[in-house]
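Bump. Still looking for MOXD1 protein structure tokens.
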Amino acid sequence: DYFTDENRVLKKDPQQDYHLEYAMENSTHTVLAFSRELHTCDTNDKSITESTVRVIWAYHHKDMGEAGKNYHGSNRGTKSLRLLNPEREEVSSASLPYFDLTNKDVPVPDKDTTYWCQMFKIPVQHEKHHVTKVEPLIQKGHENLVHHILLYQCSSNLNDSVLDYGHECYHPNMPDSFLTCETVIFAWAVGGEGFTYPPHVGLSIGTAADPLFVLMEVHYDNPSYTEGL
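Sorry for the wait, here they are.
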């Protein structure tokens, strides 16, 4: 159980709150399983909650000896995780109707950050319905590419011509129709999962006051500047 100070110096925590459960090693993997209280009342520990947390990891190929820790070099990384998943009551049925809003073949530039906007039309309903669950739909293998997704409600005075193209968000040449989309009705970020509304709540669709056109903003993250994604 170590912690770092404001100068990034690693120090042994006088209050040891992490407990090794077991350890194993083979020719390719080292596994250390440990446990800790969610709230340790230790100012050097971060409380574990249901929120998304940024986990930082690093390792050295040699074990830590009497001389102390070894610098990890390039063996380091980060990942956004929800260490605690809130209990989910499955109220949805496989027979319930659903619809997907998906980008098609978006070329992700070889730059760190890209915000891509695409307009969609909610499938026409002839009477009031309620959306009871929303979840991210991410192409397999591209999980590290999608950083967050926002869904905005747009003006109801638009027509289907706005559906023909996507465009980079916040660009000087962004279509004027995108500027009518101001109210966020759903948000997802890396480390999160789907969202199920409480049993007595839903997002209304199908009436004149409900969203008909929505704008999906996807933040693509390409820190390695990989081409051809």
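The radius of gyration is 23 Å.

Edit: fixed formatting.
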